[in-house]
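Minutes, project check-in

Agenda point 3 was the complex the collaborators sent over. CS summarized: two entities, 264 residues total, and the question is how they sit relative to each other. Sequences were read into the notes so everyone works from the same version.
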Amino acid sequence: MNHYLTLSLLLFLVGTVGFIVKKNVLAMFLCVELMLNAANLAFVAFARDLGQLQGQVFVFLVMVVAAAEAAVGLAIMIVLYRCRGTLNPDEADTMKG
Amino acid sequence: METLFFYLFGGIALLAAMSVVAQKKIFYSALSLIICLGSIAVLFLALEAPFIAAVQVIVYAGAVMVLFLFVIMLLDPFSAAAARDKRKRLTFLAVALGLVALAVLFTLMRAHDPATPPLAGEPPGGTDPVGRLGRLLFTRYLIPFEATSILILVAIMGVVVLARKRS
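CS then shared the predicted structure for the full assembly.
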């Protein structure tokens, strides 16, 4: 149990570091997927440890939301690339105060 | 045995995750993420969640990542061109590995005999984890489950509106 939680934490940390370091919207998106999967691993580990299936139900819902998020996010990226010709999030700063 | 499994596939998942962050070309990042998702699916199997593992492979590592790769090739043509490997040896290796995977699959399918019920002596859907999960989804968590279908519908409409060409 502790091993699985440690692995989940490490994967989440790697995803967070990648999200902060990367300079490409697509790469940042991949890191978000990594973080979601780390959370899913923790959910399933808890479900096994407590002997209940609620954790797996949550993982199922997280996967559905992640699929919807990936579809909408990728569409937004295509529109962003069409409008700006770049994938660097620092250059999309029209709404910066 | 489970400890061995955990350290093997947990290590693969962690290395692949680091590779996602470390790779310069985003195409290779996406391929590393597929490896990571696959080894996490094996960990799900070890945690007695076969349905979640199957969904992970089919939906996540399959559908979502293929969508990612399409968009990467669409938006980042330099990366995709670099990923087109010229070395023929790797092509042969890929075909050989695919054939091995196919052979393993056929052996497993022949070994599995559907005539003998795998859950003999148990109440129908009683201790089978997939059956229990399905029953939970369609009774206590029916409303969240139906809400996800509305969410997916909204996502589909949003994608169509966003990706439409404006004239």
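Noted in discussion: Chain B touches chain A through 53 residues (CB under 8 Å).
Follow-up: revisit at the next meeting once the mutant set is ready.
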